[in-house]
Amino acid sequence: MRYTFGLDTFGDRNGGTDGKPLSHAQTIRNVVREGVFAEQVGVDFFGIGEHHTEIFPMPAGDVALAAIAAQTTKIRLGSAVTVLSSDDPVRVFQRYSTLDAISTGRAEVILGRGSSIESFPLFGYDLADYDELFDEKATLFAELLEGGPVTWQGKTRPALRGQDVVPHVESGQFPAWIGVGGNPQSVIRAARLGYSLALAIIGGSPARFSAYSELFRRALESFGQPLRPVLVHSPGHVAESDDKAKAEFWPRWRDILTVMAPERGFAIPTEKSFDREIGPHGALYVGSPETVARKIATNLEVLDATRFDLKYGMPGMTHDQLMAGIELYGRKVIPRVRELLGEPDR
Amino acid sequence: MTTTTGPNKLAVLGAGHVGPVIARLAVKAGYPVAIATSGDPADIALIAELMIPGARPRWASQAVAEADVVVLAIPLHRFVTVDPQMFAGKLVVDAMNYWPASDGVLSAFTGGGSTEIVAGRLTGSTVVKALNHIGYHELEDLARPAGAPDRRAAGVAGDDPAAVGVIAGVIDRLGYDPVRFENLRAGRVLQPGGQVFGVALALPEFERAVGQNATSPL
User: Fold this and answer.
1) Contact criterion met (CB < 8 Å) for A265 and B138
2) The domain containing residue B185 runs over which residues?
3) Is residue B2 part of a domain?
4) CATH number, domain containing residue B172
5) Count of domains in chain B?
6) Which value does ipTM take for this structure?
7) B18 lies in some domain
8) A342's torsion region: left (phi>0), alpha (psi -120 to 50) or beta?
9) For B129-174, how does the pLDDT look when each residue is reduced to its tens digit (9 = 90+)?
10) Which of A264, A281, A260 is nearest to A209 (CA)?
């Protein structure tokens, strides 16, 4: 199989059927159910992104992934993303190599920042040091992935001298990606350090990212690295019809982005701008299985990528809406994308 | 100064999210463009070749020395480590933002207008605020030739009217209706928290949004 398909969540706090938000604890239990269900409907990967906020109460996604691992046998499980800059690379490696052990070789990590910054003050890091922190820690993490005793020295954590970091990974290495949101220098870094590339496309035309895929391949070549895959991560929601998907997703998208817009510096979405984003030239995958499948197939080809991860749902949506979306994604969207791309269904 | 006798050479400092977008628009507008980071131009050779065809990667000092207009598109926390002498005598466009919610707190920039503080450091240069208030992917997608019905407006603020006029001409060529502000103080409406930060408006809506702050468009 050339193509694989995933689902990502940030632990978006669920709404109840009465419109009131569910507790953080219930939301986390629902995420575990969603991950287990994703395997049952044929999804290849389930990812949990690190966040530390009231509407995304998901700081320890690896614990939830372990619970999913215990109830599944095939689906791959990983972070989407791990905010490496405000974490300890040794601890991240240990948590995901433990997940790899529990799941018998199904762990992955995507390292990055996402668009979240809340972990920096929480753990005492300065955002101004973001780049230096990420560069050093991604370099150390790449060495940890190699296995064997690690000798390392830097400014952001204590040095290691011939340190054996356990547990050892059974199969040698688990897949590791660097998530990039639009900075070409981050693409070069991913190639230089030997990571695969995850393109987070959350607004505007996906086609403009095709230059990043090419940049990644050329950079791999220039560093003497083997060819590595590119994945695309984008938000969306699937329902029986385009209208139903929009009715379930748009009000939640509007509410959340209206709060986030002033602090993140983007325009408050209007229904018109939202319609552009869910159209053929936008970044959101909201609609019927056919609408979403066509858009995924087109963009995988345009971006020369082999994996698509849908960040499903939004805070305030109900667990039932999310489960229905997961079922359609697994049973309808994925087989249809494979068909559109000329790949036989398994 | 008029737009027809505008600058010939642009240097864009920064090859992150914003720099390549501005450089691409400038190449498209017909300017000779150099792009530089704090490091070796070899490190951004591939980025220039694939993402900004036509722009030349240079050492920062070379790019600045040869340019008529220098665009600063580096993280603000890096700007405070740059030697102001390098920009002496140059017309500098500040496309940077002080945006604590996204980039953290910088004590040198708390309170006031970030470009006023930038200008306070670059005492030997003429500083104009522009290209900072439209998101980097929109900046490219929404650029239109003069007269296009769906053209958007972009602000240009500075204390030197001649310099503002020059940069207004550049903005026009890059694809936006320039709206001039008569000093950097008035240009605070362009920065995070200001009325037009993060939104790309057509000229009439832009003028309504900024109220009395703007002088007449070009």
Assistant:
1) no
2) 10-212
3) no
4) 3.40.50.720
5) 1
6) 0.89
7) yes
8) left
9) 999 999 888 899 899 999 999 999 999 999 999 999 999 999 999 9
10) A281
